[in-house]
Amino acid sequence: MSFFRTLALSTGIVVGAVAGAQASQLYTCEEATNVGFYGDFVYHFDLKRGDAITVVEAMERLNINVQAAYSLAVTSPEGAYQTTLPHTYVAQSDGEVTLSVTFAPLEAVPRGTTSLRASASCVPGAGLDAGAGANLGRIMGTTQNLAMHNALDGVAQNRFGGHANTVAVSRQGGFATGAIEGTGLTVWGYAEGRSYWGDDDGASYDLVIGADRMMSDTLFVGAMLGYTKIDVDGSDDTGKALAYGPYFGLETGTLRLDGFLTYARPEYEVGGESFTANRRALGLAVSGDVPLASGILSPFGRLTAFDERQRAYGTVAAEHIQNARLSLGARMEFAEVNGMTPYLSGAVEAVSQKTRAEGSSSFVAPRIGVGFDSEMANGMTLSVDVDAGKQAEGTYDAGLRIGLSKSF
Prior knowledge:
This protein is mostly beta strands. It has helices at about 5-10, 130-160; strands at about 25-30, 35-40, 40-45, 50-55, 70-75, 80-85, 85-90, 95-105, 115-125, 175-180, 185-200, 200-215, 220-230, 235-250, 255-265, 265-270, 275-290, 290, 295-310, 320-335, 340-355, 360-375, 380-390, 395-405. The chain has two domains: about 25-105 and about 115-125, Jelly Rolls (Sandwich); about 130-160 and about 185-405, Autotransporter beta-domain (Lipocalin). The strands form three sheets. It has a 15-stranded antiparallel β-sheet that branches. A five-stranded mixed β-sheet has the order 1-3-8-5-6, with no helix packed on it. It has a four-stranded antiparallel β-sheet with strand order 2-9-4-7.
């Protein structure tokens, strides 16, 4: 940048300007500090989403009618409008923004005057939603916990031959599972997709894999790895996370208990700003079976929770997210029909969450699920599961799983 342009930016004085000319500089937000609006000049700014530029009236009015009013014309990727001073424009997307200051009525000052009318300053990222990162972290943390719990529940069913302790998994959930002969080790994998609508629109995709060993007839332990990718709000906010940790399953009489602990280091991009976080999560579930004439009723309870600490980004301070979700419900698995074993399930979920940006909140909402599994001719089991519920206040979600499993 030249010395003269630096002087102009720092003092609000346009060097070498000619009255009535149109300014052609393209300023970045970082460069725009006390940029002076003289005469009929038009200024162009290359802004990033979240940048906030404020235009204020000059300290002194020179050679003008003091009864005249300033009018600011704004042309942005979102459209064009006019307003009065002072005014702050927050960029909703990356792109060029054009600003100019005129008088109303125009007769108040001769056209072409070089009198200083206003000045503009920009703060990068000042308009970023302070709660956007916390909101994205809450959605992804909840989704990854649910995916890992669903996967573990499918493993427990295969190990113990029981029924589900969740709304969303068929009796043989999982796209690949099988024992490695002679080792006592089982490896498995699970995949699911989830869609969101309401206040937050988007989708997430999860892959969970693991391996475990039977320590006795009633206990298995193992380790699992889960990968989540999420896009919400038109892909403006994205995140991904690799979570890993130990898990277990225990059968005691007519009850089954399983649980997991995981650690993840999520990576986010919000409003063009990238940042990371540290998340610790847990899940614990219990279920049992009650034989009925029409099938098997399986009451269940599940608790999942996580604690996430996000680093500061842009002008947004560091965030701390705490989330807990308790589900109480039951599923009814019906008798086999044409080679398929269908089920219907329902639960009531109580959710409590807390963030620095938005404070504490809680809600209670239902979650329902349907699905079936079918033994195929080649010895594999096909499972299809769908569930839907409330993700947060104003946001709802639905998940779909299609799985294949085979025991060796």
